[in-house]
Write a structure and sequence with these properties.
The chain is of the alpha+beta class. It has a domain of about 130 residues: 7,8-Dihydro-6-hydroxymethylpterin-pyrophosphokinase HPPK (Alpha-Beta Plaits). Strands 1, 2, 3, 4, 5 and 6 form a six-stranded antiparallel β-sheet that branches.
């Protein structure tokens, strides 16, 4: 399958958040997510690093089983839009159906950041960052928003991200991943628990 390649992205790093809390046809959440990492490789995306594997309570509390979360760092010649399309293709391969916002899911792949790239523009990204919580539960962007508009709010994204690139700087706020983690409530950070005995193969 042809992909949109831009030579400007030949050596650009990107970071993808992986999450799941329901089984799929592939297997249990961790099996599904590990298979998705291999899918990325098979589709020509170089996986350069992986965070630890974490367990995070479902949101809202009591809505379902806990999530398995981790992040990977990739290097790709794909444009941001083409990489997002590929991630959606992998989700569909493992049974993801986008129906309800924040519902339990068998796989969730989020493009968190692609170096300092902003999509589609600063004004639009900031509008989604500032979206009230009540609107977040019902509204989803129809186009790629980069960096991910909720990254600064979510410990389950930032803590795995910090394993890979703690000094990455958000192009709008100017804050590093480490600084964004420091700004989160301690209660949210302690809910994200590293899981021993699980290691994502990166080669």
């Amino acid at each position: 399958m042809s992909r949109d390649v831009d030579e400007k992205y030949a050596k650009i790093r990107a970071w993808v958040a992986f999450g799941a809390n329901l089984p799929s046809e592939t297997g249990e959440p961790v099996e599904t997510l590990f298979a998705a990492v291999q899918d990325l490789r098979d589709m020509g995306v170089a996986v350069r690093g992986a965070s630890r594997v974490f367990e995070t309570p479902c949101f809202p509390a009591g809505a379902g089983p806990s999530y398995i979360n981790f992040a990977i760092e990739v290097e790709t010649a794909l444009t941001p839009e083409a990489l997002l399309s590929l991630l959606h293709e992998i989700e569909a391969r493992h049974g993801r159906v986008r129906k309800t916002r924040w519902a339990g899911r068998s796989i969730d792949l989020d493009l968190m950041a692609m170096e300092g790239k902003v999509r589609p523009d600063v004004t639009t990204v900031q509008r989604w960052i500032d979206l009230p919580m009540s609107a977040q539960t019902t509204q989803a962007p129809e186009t790629l928003i980069l960096p991910h508009p909720r990254i600064q709010d979510r410990a389950f994204m930032l803590i795995p991200f910090a394993d890979l690139a703690p000094d990455w700087v958000h192009p709008l706020s100017g804050k590093t991943v480490a600084e964004m983690i420091d700004a989160l409530p301690d209660a949210e950070k302690t809910e994200v628990k590293a899981q021993s005995g699980l290691e994502i193969p990166v080669n």
